Amino acid sequence: MAASSNNELSEIKTLDSATQNPQTNGQDSTPKDPEPLDEAIQPLNAQSTADTNTGEKRKRDDQDPTQESTLHPLWKTSLCSYFRRNDGSCSHGSNCRYAHGEEELRPRPDNTWDPTSERAKKAMKGENGEKLAAKEEEEEEEKEVMMTEMVMDGEDGDGSEEGGDPQLSKCLVNLPRKWHSDNLRKFLNDQGISYKSAKKKKGMVVGFVSFESAEELKSAVQELEGKSFGNKNLKVANVIPRPFERKVKSAMEDASVKENAGVSINSNGVEDGAQNDDGSVLDDSASKAKSARDAVTPLAHMSYGDQLEHKKNSIMQVLKKLTRNARKACPNGVSLPEWVLTSRERGGLPCELEGIIESPVVNGYRNKCEFSVGYSQQGKPTVGFMLGNFREGVTAVEEPVDCPNVSRIACKYASILQESLQHSSLPIWNRFKNTGFWRQLTVREGRSAGKVVDESLEANISEVMLIVQVSSAGFDDAQINTEFERLAQAFAAGAAENSLPLTALVVQDHQGISNVAPADAPLRSLPIPKAESGLELKTSDPSVEARIRDCISNLRFSISPTSFFQVNTLAAEKLYSLAGEWAGLGPDTLLFDICCGTGTIGLTLAHRVGMVIGIEMNASAVQDAHKNAEINGIKNCRFICSKAEDVIGSLLKEYLNMSEKQDLPSSAVESSDKEKGTCEEKDTCANNGHDAGESPCQEPEENGGKEPHNQLQESSTSKDENSSVQQFKNVVAIVDPPRMGLHPTVIKALRTHARLRRLVYISCNPESLVANAIELCTPSPDKVEKGKKDNRHWRNMSSAGLARHRAKSMPISEPFRPVKAMAVDLFPHTPHCEMVMLLER
Ligand SMILES: C[S@@+](CC[C@H](N)C(=O)[O-])C[C@H]1O[C@@H](n2cnc3c(N)ncnc32)[C@H](O)[C@@H]1O
């Protein structure tokens, strides 16, 4: 795959150089660094966007490009990846310079074929048959594990029965994502294929077909092999049988259980591009993982030193994109910034990467684990980690055995729930059908203060909150209550038996498709019964709000069930103190803590600044922040419950406006004037991330136009209400956004408020940090391009490409420059890492 993509890359470069004018970036005449793969491919996939992005770069002939006489030598010599990814459609139609399918493909001038094409593969087979055979064998093996369970039942009106013989069932892989069952059935009928039942869910690339007999199956496989959609070959894969002998037959034979037993699915961080609280997702490679350990801790086989080196190197690669993209996006006639010109001295880095801070604790460090409820590869009801991506048909959940980042306590609670499920009369959630009851177990641990090293970490865990996610719709209340009582007994007994802390037991009711519940999903505290034997547990009072406590930098933090809290508390302490160190704080500093969660950053730094303003959209987290300020006797903080994009403009204006107009270029003053509004109180707070379906290309003005300020809920921990209009000499922002990065409106506000001279960016996703930094650091043109609203292709652009595109319409303003960066390893054994970058101007 890598080889073919690289070839695609070289193809693109050739095409570009054949059609482009050399780009002159002010005084820079040095050659550009090679483009990263994704960026290089993306602009070609969305050519009109690329045209917009690069100005003169992709000039088109007015003549009909398909005329032989005007054909570029590379015309249709590469397969169109846009066409392939979009199941055979490309907005450029026949004018696309890339081939739409094998039939259109032309040989290259050197008589070779696009290496991703079937022709090239065939040629390669001739040359190197053995290699290919080995590869095919490998693929064959993969086919065996793609689908862990058969998804069949008779509820789709196709008259089919559930399950049946796994030997007579097959998975079809690489089907168009947009297809649902009807499309699959029509396709099979059109091919004249007889089958018993066919199912497919929109969004997945796999479908499930069962047959009446071995002959029927055999002829279907013969007919289907070799078919392709767009540029993807259809694969026929095996459905893994489910040999697991269920312990409680009567319960499992319950009809609903039977239906749901068809697939073991969960959203633990994979399908939804999310979402452990560290923002970590399972890697693509995880889709082939065979154990939970491989899936969630893919670096566990390396020494910790090697892991750190590995992470540092991959962060370096991502950081280099900032330099390359700022160079590309630098407007014609404008000098390249000094940091770009000197980047060669740093091997292409935009600033020094000062190193990587290691985690003080390497094993069992996670204070929060989200365990999926599903079926193992053997079909056993399991509480653990999902092995891969649902869309690709990987659905198995395996126990968190040998996952070095999970504590013994969390593992134990997962196994208590798993054991309890073997006796449950309620079904496991089936993501394929969106039915079922049991969905997820979250174990949150709180520590008491004290010095901790690896071995003693568990000794410091003094509180545990269990959150069981269910989907109660359609189930009988009495049955549910009985199940909850039984479960509470099981947890209490297990805790007592194993001497585990158990502070709160909460049920979260969530009907949505994925397990990532909105912050306002109903929560219900369950009483924890006194254990019958062993350690005595307190009976918890369900009317008292469930929370656990932890400590950072000698401050106590109270955390409610849905509030964000960094999963590795001891490493987070290091992260926050680094951010504070770089922020250049003092008594005359006004610190904006953007995406403040429970107030951790602002509160730990409050004693070093004049005032903190925290902005956070999760209402529970904001309540926690107030409480935490109170517990710790901190009075100079104001926390605002709102999406940052809805209030940042008015807040900066409120605090910085006095001298801002003297400092700002006129265009920037104009733009900030548009973001008028006052902070009004409102009862509820918005809960979602960036609006679903909202184009990130949308101009901030458009978004700001919704005006937003009525969504604001605020309060101050300061006794001095006048502090809200106090002027501070030094204004600093520390931003710590979720994986997707900052909203464009926030970026625009930070960039255009000239009194904000220093910005510390903390990120769990270096890609989005780089994308945001492109917008913050690219020099302004002499004149801003207005009215370029052709955003149709934003979905196909890389984050860096999109950022370049957006940078073009940024109001004229002084850019930031990257000063230094540092990685902080909060997630040993995984590829994830936090990063801090200091930006100044
Ligand atoms: C990575 S966490 C950081 C929280 C906090 N700084 C900490 O370290 O504990 C990101 C936080 O941003 C919040 N968030 C997400 N989108 C937001 C938005 N648009 N506006 C404000 N807060 C947001 C989330 O609820 C979450 O608490």
| CATH 4th-level superfamily of the domain at 568-777 | Vaccinia Virus protein VP39
Question: Given the helix and strand composition, which structural class is it?
Answer: alpha+beta
CATH fold type of the domain at 568-777: Rossmann fold
Binned strand content? 15-25%
Global mean pLDDT: 76
Radius of gyration: 28 Å
Question: How many E strands?
Answer: 24
Helix content: 25-40%
Euclidean distance between termini CA atoms: 42 Å
CATH architecture of the domain at 568-777: 3-Layer(aba) Sandwich
Features:
single chain, 841 residues, alpha+beta, OB fold (Dihydrolipoamide Acetyltransferase, E2P), Rossmann fold, nine-stranded mixed β-sheet, seven-stranded mixed β-sheet, 25 helices, 24 strands, 32% helix, 16% strand, disordered N terminus, binds S-adenosylmethionine, S-adenosyl-L-methionine, Nucleotide-bd_a/b_plait_sf, zinc-finger, Znf_CCCH, methyltransferase
